[in-house]
Design brief:
This protein has 295 residues and is mostly helical. It contains 13 helices and 2 strands. Strands 1-2 form a two-stranded antiparallel sheet. Helix 10 packs antiparallel against helix 13.
């Protein structure tokens, strides 16, 4: 009797777990679907009213002028430049750090470094922004002799912010390479450095590329830290030492008081950003599948 009762309890728990997991899965999918519907149902009509070429290729953003101008090309280019700069700073630094942690780091130091990188990943972006505003901006301002709220300040902060993502994923990819690859290269006469950079890293390239793609996603979607250090001027970028406004900044800075077409244009800016993020995620999925096929 007890055995039959325990069996029923076991199956009840199993069915309950499956039901909870299924509800959680559908809740996640429904949440993403609702966000997509909201963004595109509000954004696409605005793009139609403004004109797709005027909206995407227009160089003036002046919603309070008469007639109002809603060109987001300066924000698109600024987002691209800032993200590219962050990748130029963050990728080499992150990959070399990952190589050090995977192949050179003493065990006593490793736990300290690993904890530090995990801590970096958990720091709120606003704290990075405060650091940039208090430390980086004054240094840049002192060098150029005017306000340090510039594109280079945003690049430096974002370059630091993407480090945890690139380091942790690249290190995992390097450690996943069979040790026989390294030992075989050394047995054939290669130095340790040559074995790492000509055998191990190429074998881990799919995982490293995935890390870089996720880093790009983090950089292009970042808002709060960039607001504090980038200046916020809605104009075409004029150099590293001038202020810029990214797409995320444009939305956050003006959404509080926007109304009517202005508000819809900001949501449309979010739709454009959303498409960029989807493309980056698509690249990540393709990279992961290629990695799986290679393995």
């Amino acid at each position: 009797m007890d055995k039959e009762k325990n069996k029923k309890i076991f199956y009840f728990k199993e069915r309950s777990f499956k039901t909870i997991a299924l509800i959680s899965t559908f809740a996640s999918i429904i949440a993403v679907a609702i966000i997509c519907i909201f963004i595109f149902s509000n954004g696409l009509p605005a793009i139609k009213k403004i004109g797709i070429s005027e909206f995407l290729l227009g160089t003036k953003w002046s919603p309070t002028s008469s007639p109002a101008k809603f060109g987001i090309l300066p924000m698109i280019i600024s987002s691209f430049y800032v993200t590219l700069g962050a990748i130029i700073i963050g990728v080499p630094t992150g990959i070399f750090t990952a190589v050090f942690m995977a192949k050179y780091c003493p065990k006593k130091v490793y736990s300290f470094l690993s904890s530090g990188i995990s801590l970096m990943a958990g720091i709120p972006s606003i704290i990075y922004g405060f650091f940039g505003l208090i430390v980086v901006v004054p240094i840049i301002g002192g060098i150029i002799g005017r306000s340090g709220l510039t594109m280079i300040s945003a690049i430096i902060i974002l370059g630091i912010m993407i480090l945890p993502t690139i380091i942790s994923l690249s290190e995992a990819a390097i450690r996943a390479v069979p040790r026989t690859y390294y030992e075989g290269a050394v047995a054939l006469g290669a130095t340790k450095e040559r074995a790492i950079f000509t055998v191990v890293l190429p074998a881990a390239k799919s995982g490293i590329i995935s890390a870089i793609i996720l880093g790009i996603g983090r950089a292009i979607g970042e808002t709060m830290a960039v607001i504090l250090v980038a200046g916020g001027q809605p104009r075409l970028p004029r150099g590293l030492f001038r202020g810029v406004r990214t797409m995320t900044m444009n939305i956050v800075l003006e959404m509080g008081y926007a109304a009517d077409l202005h508000r819809e244009a900001l949501i449309a800016t979010g739709a454009v950003l959303f498409i960029f993020i989807l493309l980056i995620n698509l690249l990540f999925v393709i990279s992961k599948r290629r990695n799986k096929n290679e393995n």
